Amino acid sequence: MHKFDEMFAQVQDSGPLQFQGQSLGGMTQVQVQGVRDHYRTYAEWLGRQPQEIMRSRREEAEMIFRKVGITFAVYGAKDEDGSGTERLIPFDLIPRIIPAAEWRRMEQGLVQRVTALNRFIHDVYHEQEIVKAGILPMEQIRGNAQFRPEMMGVNVPNNIYSHIAGVDIVRAPNAQGEGEYYVLEDNLRVPSGVSYMLEDRKMMMRLFPDLFSAYQVAPVMHYPDLLLETLRASAPSTTDDPTVVVLTPGMYNSAYFEHAFLAQQMGVELVEGQDLFVRDNFVYMRTTRGPRRVDVIYRRVDDDFLDPLAFRPNSTLGCAGLLNVYRAGNVTLCNAIGTGVADDKSIYPFVPQMIEFYLGEKPILSNVPTYMCRNPEDLKYVLANLQDLVVKEVHGAGGYGMLVGPTASKEEIEQFRQVLQAKPEGYIAQPTLSLSSCPTFVDKGIAPRHIDLRPFVLSGKEVQMVPGGLTRVALKEGSLVVNSSQGGGTKDTWILEI
To answer: Average per-residue pLDDT in the chain?
Structure first.
């Protein structure tokens, strides 16, 4: 038997369920004693399912995902035959279930946090009151790789910079040993993954329609409508009927499926940089009927590649002259240029203070305790405890550029020690959280795997989101890294309506 609390001594999403990995009499063996109430009906249902049926459902899901083309690219990776980098993100059949009350508090915390972050970005590019108040050192802004001096003094519609935010949430024990949600990371530039949230729900409804009559699961399929509403609400005042496009780097980008999916779902054009041009300080796209003015660009291209006249001169992914049009207020970019200054990991520790400074409120969602290696005392502690900490590059993403101390070799720890001593300002460190785990259908049967959650927060005339998000799961036994580029998978996330 695998008993979750005995194996990991941690908070579980489902409670101290017991699972047997191998089938017995063809049925999935699940003991429901001690199951959290919101998982009980599902656990009883799962106990009645033959494992061969579950395996066939998993094969069916994989076949459909591959047929539809729901893939991502891993840069620098090769398949076994040495060709191609396209991979399916593994999909797990067992949903992650969150009670309505837990979601309501999380939602309130997300609205609060994203509102404060947008206030912060506006402040960074205008009065910099948070620096004058002595809360954030100027070098934390000026030395930030994502700070864009070109944005100083630029006004954007509704003072919204991050229209689409993906906030990574983990559940772990608090000081009282009870489960609590913590913010692990803010993604404010071009957060990805929402297409997998939608496709996972569609797949679960296709494979297990009976479950949706047993549970009142809040819907998520209206996300594209909310996204389009948010984008249109951000349009410049120069138009009453804005034209929205999705700007993609092209088919070789790791998230191209998502770019095409969202454009199709919203009913707007998917464009590349070569499809756009600037004339008379407005942006136009080329169409078979002639040029058409563009008012809102949902861009999935990084800042450095947006405008070769302002940033990288060799970029072919953007549109020459775009920054001037943007600064003139004749086009809206979602998300804004320079938004990344707020989601750098060296800024993350200051977010609770931002909430109090800009909103006059106590944070609803807590940060994970964080050591800033640029501080001598923090660095001293980190160097002495590398074997127990997770160390992250402040500009890193995708699970790269990090050290997970408890699973690292002595050689890896010593190599990282030298890197930290050479460039301490480039890293933060956090304790190794006892992340909650969720029952997951793996090759050997059902076993616990660690998870996180990325809700998607939309900021337009109001801050709103669909009830749910993308649950990512670390499929390797004992792993804490959920990123798809590092072998992670996804689950459908069920927010209960009552």
So the answer is: 87
